[in-house]
Every structure is written in C-alpha cells, then in structure tokens.
Amino acid sequence: MNGILLFGHGARNPEYIEPFRRIRAAVERLQPGVPVETGFLELTRPPLEAAIEALARRGVTHVKVVPIFFAPGRHVLKDLPELLGSAMDRFPGIEFEVAECVGEVDGVIEAMAAHAVAGA
Amino acid sequence: MNGILLFGHGARNPEYIEPFRRIRAAVERLQPGVPVETGFLELTRPPLEAAIEALARRGVTHVKVVPIFFAPGRHVLKDLPELLGSAMDRFPGIEFEVAECVGEVDGVIEAMAAHAVAGA
C-alpha cells in the first residue's frame, strides 16, 4: 500500500503546523483512504522517524516523501537521505521515493504568483 | 505606483534563489509592467533593504510584501516588521502592506496537495 509523508523543517511556534494540517487534509480529500502523515526535521512534532513508524503501522509498503520546502538545500539533500537511510534499515519492507520540493513545482509557483498579484 | 516584494528567508546554496526567480517571472507575466523584486532576510542576495531601494528607484509608492514562507513565525512576525520599520524611516514616501504567507493561501495549499498525490 502507498502512503504519503509530508516532510517539513519544523519551527518553534505551534502555528507552524497549520499549513501542514491543511495540506494533509487536502491530500486526504483528493485520495481518500491513502495514509498521509506529517514529519519534521526538528522542533515540531512528530519527528520524521515517528511519522514513518506510523505509516508502517498502517501497513504502508511504499512511502512517497514530499519535501514541503521551497528549494532543495542541505535539509533535503543531506539530512533527509540520512534519515531515510536509517528508516530503510529499520523498515526493510518499505520502499521510499522522494518527490520534488513543493517550491519546484509549476502549479505551486503559479499559485504563489497568483497570491502575490491578488487584489493588486 | 504599486510594486511587489517577494520576501524569502535565504539559504547558503545558490540554487535556493531559483523558485524566487520563477515566482517573479510568473508575477511579471500576470502583471506586465508592475515592478517586482525579491529580497531576503539572510544569506541570499539581495537583502530586503536593497530590494526596497530598487523598488523606490523604480518609482514605487506602495509595496506589497509577500512572505514566501509556509507559516508566519519569528521571521515574518518580528524580523520583517523591524526591517519594514527601518524602511519606512528611510523611504517615507512608500506605503507598505504585508500579504499572507504563501503557505496560508488556499490555492497554494491545494497545489501542494496536488503535487503530493501526483502519479500516486
């Protein structure tokens, strides 16, 4: 079974999680029944490892990791592969796939531009 | 004249600027002739102040600042108002307006969710 993991940086303020909750809800609306979890590098809970564990418990065997980042930097290019390497050791029955960062995607770029000009 | 300022955090890697270039190009396509600049808090050039200066040189009297952040945290709620406060002292003829963070906007949330389920 396929699952989706929304991977974010994390932040000190509790409101930070709100857009992640909304993306998750939108994904669940688009694909009812597909397990979706959010996982963070630091500060915000749950950490990525716990999100993967939650997907494993739900019977997921293929995880599409979606970096909720504007551009691939150290966190996506170095920290994420390290975390996924450990997860592969721990969950040998799960395959991982890393999608493009949301900020690299045409539709997201267009939506941000539309927001920038809204009401102008 | 209205202008748009895309405000980002900044990062060490030079590729970080790419999505900002693309949002700027999309905004210029949507509103040809409206001055658009990108400005950053740290690491990536130009700094916010320099971007405001560039808009002032282009005759802009109203700047819509669009935070390219997923959620409002310290950088948007504290650092940005401080920077804009200094800019208001320096450019008394310019009005500033701060838009919602892109990650709070329905269309952007939907586009990120669509990316998360693409090909799944």
Quick overview of this protein structure:
The structure is a homodimer of 120-residue chains. The first copy, chain A, is of the alpha/beta class and 120 residues long.
Please, could you describe this protein's structure?
The structure is a homodimer of 120-residue chains. With 120 residues, chain A is of the alpha/beta class. Chain A has a single domain, classed as Rossmann fold, CATH 3.40.50.1400. Helices cover 43% and strands 18% of the residues of chain A. Chain A is built from 4 helices and 4 strands; from the N terminus they run E-H-E-H-E-H-E-H. Chain A has helices at residues 18-30, 48-57, 74-90, 106-117; strands spanning 2-8, 36-40, 62-67, 95-98. Chain A has a 4-stranded parallel beta sheet, with helices on both faces. In chain A, strand 1 (2-8), helix 1 (18-30) and strand 2 form a beta-alpha-beta unit. The first copy, chain A, is globular, with a radius of gyration of 15 Å. The first copy, chain A, starts with a strand and ends with a helix. The model of chain A has no long low-confidence stretch (mean pLDDT 96). The interface between A and B is large, with 50 and 49 residues.
Distance between the termini of chain A: 45 Å
Topology, number of strands of chain A = 4
Q: Low-confidence runs of chain A (pLDDT<50, min 5 residues)? A: none
What string, H for helix and E for strand, traces the elements of chain A in order? EHEHEHEH
Q: Give the strand line-up of the largest sheet of chain A.
A: 2-1-3-4
Domains counted in the coordinates of chain A: how many?
A: 1
Q: Roughly how many Å is the radius of gyration of chain A?
A: 15 Å
The third-level CATH topology of chain A is: Rossmann fold
What overall geometry of chain A do the principal axes of the alpha carbons give?
Answer: globular
Discrete helix count of chain A = 4
| Oligomerization category of the chains in this entry | homodimer
Mean pLDDT over all positions of chain A: 96
Give the helix/strand class of chain A: alpha/beta
Strand count, sense and barrel status of the largest sheet of chain A are:
4 strands, parallel
